[in-house]
Amino acid sequence: MSHWTEGLEPGDEDRSLVRPYAITRGRTAPERDDLRLITMVVTVDEHGEKTAARGLEPEHRAILEQCREPSAIAEIAATLNLPVSVTKILVGDLITQGRVAVRPPPTARQAGLNTTLLQAVRDGLEKL
Amino acid sequence: MGWRNSDQDARPERGRSAPAAVKFLVAGGFGVGKTTLVGAVSEVAPVRTEEYLTQASAGVDVIEGLAEKSTTTVALDFGRISISAELVVYLFGTPGQERFWFMWNDLVNGALGAIVLVDTRRLEVSFASIDFFENRGVPFVVGVNCFHGECDRTAEEVREALDLDPDVPLLLGDVRRPEVGRGLMLALVDRLMAQAPPDDTPVGVG
Question: What is the distance in angstroms between the Cα of A42 and the nearest Cα belonging to chain B?
Fold first, then answer.
């Protein structure tokens, strides 16, 4: 019986054999549970290019690149083609390192009580 | 660039600020036009994202001592409408298999409200979504997707068949048209505003 890695080209390992939880070094749950699908993430620019790359997985660097323009967790997950929970772990790493800032969404209750916010949404939709 | 401006609500941890984000759900059964609606109103083509959901298999026959949980990958499509530099609306089309997205708390929690799409030829595929939002107290509106611009039922007939509460807005239209999705979102926001206290006490959007 041939081994399952036979037939893979050298160098393929990085692309085809890395499972999502290998990227997170085995972690399956984010350390912080406050990140939501629409938590906005923005890269903190004070790190220079060199220090920004040190000790980071390629996925971390991709997040830093994408979040130069604020992006939601769901958008980051879609770009990285990773499940949302894995993306949250990676974003959590960057928060811990102070490399990104986040803005949590209002709760449904907060937003539902906030007529200023609702009016802003309404005005925006009418202009579409 | 507007989003660089300081904004008391933005609470940037350092320097820059991100826009506030709000979320609407687009629900209904399989094949009712959820992704079509999202695509018609989104400023970008609908994007697909995935999540692993762990389902406790309570009530399911399992051999004692074997795995009691199963993990499923659920995918959904979502779109984005940038209202301004300070405000973004995300529209999430729920996955077709209700029993999976119903337990995806991060998808449901924080949603301001929902658009439930129905297809008059298969009303029953959207019953579960309507029940779900009614039971959770999530405000929703109903959109009757008139495929190819043809509607074979009146609003009253559909309302009666769905046994809808009189104050749930119901609109008919072809969801391929952006103005139909926009009208549904506006009806939803109007419903939210009608429920909001008249006294405008800022709660803070951050």
Answer: 6
Most confidently modeled range among A10-14, A91-95, B7-11, B200-204: A91-95
Topology classification of domain B18-48+78-195: Rossmann fold (3.40.50)
- Per-state percent for chain A, helix, strand, coil, to nearest 5: 50, 10, 45
pLDDT tens profile B178-199: 999 999 999 999 999 998 876 5
Pairing state between β A40-43 and A71-72: antiparallel
Residues of A in contact with B4 (CB under 8 A): none
User: Cβ of A128 and B178 within 8 Å?
Assistant: yes
Cβ–Cβ contact A76 with B under 8 A: no
Residue B94 exposed, middle or buried by CB count within 10 Å (0-12, 13-18, 19+): buried
Q: In a mutagenesis test of the A interface, which of B51, B72, B104, B190 is the best target, namely the one with the most A β-carbons within 10 Å? A: B51
- Subunit contact A44:B13, Cβ cutoff 8 A: yes
pLDDT digits (tens, 9 = 90+) for B27-82: 998 899 999 999 999 999 999 999 988 765 444 444 444 455 677 888 899 999 99
Nearest CB partner across the interface for B83, out of A44, A77, A121 = A121
Domain boundaries, chain B: 18-48+78-195
Residue B5 CA, distance from chain mean position:
30
Please tell me the predicted confidence (pLDDT) of residue A47: 57
To the nearest whole angstrom, how far is the Cα of B40 from the nearest Cα of chain A? 11
pLDDT band at A19 (very low <50, low <70, confident <90, very high): low
Record the pTM: 0.82
| CB contact A36 to B (< 8 Å) | yes
Q: How many CB pairs under 8 A join A and B?
A: 170
- For chain A, domains (ranges, CATH) are 18-126 (1.10.10.10)
pLDDT at res. B152:
87
Distance in Å, alpha carbon of B64 to nearest chain A alpha carbon:
25
